[in-house]
Design brief:
Layout (H helix, E strand, L loop, with lengths): L1 E6 L2 H10 L3 E4 L12 H7 L6 E5 L11 H17 L3 E4 L10 H11 L3 E4 L2 H4 L7 H7 L3 E4 L10 H11 L4 E4 L8 H8 L3 E4 L2 E5 L7 H5 L7 E5 L1 H14 L1
Parallel strand pairs: 1-2, 1-8, 2-3, 3-4, 4-5, 5-6, 6-7
Antiparallel strand pairs: 9-10
Helix pairs in contact: 1-10
Length: 245
Amino acid sequence: MILEVCVDSYTSIITAKKAGADRIELCSALNIGGLTPSYGLMKKAKEIKDIEIFVMIRPRSGDFLYDSNEFETMKHDIDIVKQMGFDGIVTGTLLPNGSIDIDRMKELVKHAYPLKVVFHRAFDDAREPMKDITKLIEIGVCRILTSGQRANALEGADYIAKIQEKFGDSITIMPGCGVTSDNVEAIYRRTKCTNYHMSGKVNVGSQMKYRECVKRMNTPKDEFVIEMADYNLIKKARDIIDKIL
């Protein structure tokens, strides 16, 4: 059983690895769903050995319909990820009608080679994505991250179970979003998936003591809250996963 942890800081990578993560999804701005990480964060991440790291390729927040300049940006970012020697990328593109943009995904898979390519939760924003899974397999996508088109993976477990049963022998189906030590076994029992994705994050108070800007400039109070991977949350999920099989 594989446990993947998504993180947006070097400290969180270290925490996740110590807690038993098998694989890291590296991004920035996890609080808005994750964006392409900075070059500096990627360079630091390469200092960490003996763990798979997949890098998010998402040029902006919002939807997954990208213009030509954004798409070129994604390819340039993939070039950097390849040059730095990561294990793979995590990305996704949709068409205006909600279908998965297979042509662009095929181009990204080809551009990323020999890196592995994961289709992320753009899958859950797509219209009838199950009909495109065969095409994703054909173009070489290795894994699909999904909450089963619901708010979280537990609510979407029945949908995930359907695509796992139909396609699981040809592509890895990975439940993600809201996966915790409290529900990972229940999700497994319903889906039989063997890869799980979690953030295991908690809010950590800022060490800043000077906060007069909150009053002077109406600075949002959440500027003084930092999301970080939590060792105990990840370790609890790891321990439960290890006991399932």
